Amino acid sequence: MKVDIEKKKTIFKRNHKEKHNIYYSTSKIIKDYTLSAVMLGIGILVAYLSHFIRFNFLAFDFSLFTLVYLIYKVKYRFVYLVTILLSLANLMHGSPSWVGTMILSLNNLFFVSMVIIFKKIFIPKTSKFHLNLCVLVLSSFLTIVFNVIMNGILYTPLYWYTFKITSTLNFLEVQKIYESHPTLFLLNIKSYWLGIIALYTIFNLIKNAIISFISLIILKIFVDQKTITTY
Any idea what DSSP says for residue 153? Predict the structure, then answer.
């Protein structure tokens, strides 16, 4: 008799736990969807407003701070979904072609991936200011390096080819063409690679510094000292 009672208690506890887990999981998904939608809306608005601020021919996009916040609050698949949608929204107000959207998407996906990786390394459970700073500094640095390299071998040749500035996609040929007639596209610097490094390092340092500053403030207010869920 006692054995039957114990079995019933065990079954009841297991069923109760399963129902609780299902309820929590469903509730979490709804919250993730809602927060992701809200941050996507904010991101689109910020992206639109920040596009009026320019460096040379490049438009700033400070909406990445919304993605940084989401990394700490929702499952990563939602972060990547919002990243892609936010980049596609750029077609509505920013880039005049698919090239700009592709470049923005790749850069944003790389930055988000770096933040996720370093967050997993440095911040397993509790968010703290100095750890968040390390995550953002390292992510920004690697993103700048990635952006400079990709601009030299792919982005710039593709952009110039699309807008008929050059007639080739070969970055070595593009380098020769530019160095024979330096232009403001690369700050009139005679060397193609020095121009790429100078332009995109300065541009991305300004952009990522502002994004990191805003992100740190938001994380300090809404996330720091709280236990965060890891995915």
Answer: I
pTM for this structure? Answer: 0.83
- Nearest CA to 59 out of 93, 102, 84, 108 is that of 93
Number of domains in the chain: 1
- The pLDDT assigned to 59 comes to 80
pLDDT digits over 203-214, tens only? 999 999 999 999
Handedness of CA 130, 135, 141, 147 (dihedral sign): negative
CA distance 199 to 156: 12
Which residues of the chain fall below pLDDT 50? 2-3, 8-9, 12, 16, 19-20, 23, 227
pLDDT tens digit string along 43-59? 999 988 888 887 777 88
CATH of the domain at 104: 1.10.1760.20
In the Cβ-directed half-sphere of 133, how many Cα atoms lie within 13 Å?
5
Query: Is 230 contained in some domain?
Result: no
**Residue 47 vs residues 36, 43, 62, 161, 230: alpha-carbon distances, Å:** 16, 6, 6, 26, 28
Q: Please, which residues bridge with residue 59 across strands?
A: 54
H or E segment and range at residue 216: helix 192-222
Residue 227, beta-bridge partner list: 126
d(CA 210, CA 228) in angstroms, rounded, equals: 24
Q: Show the tokens assigned to 94.
A: 């920013």
Q: How many whole angstroms from its chain centre is CA 86? A: 10
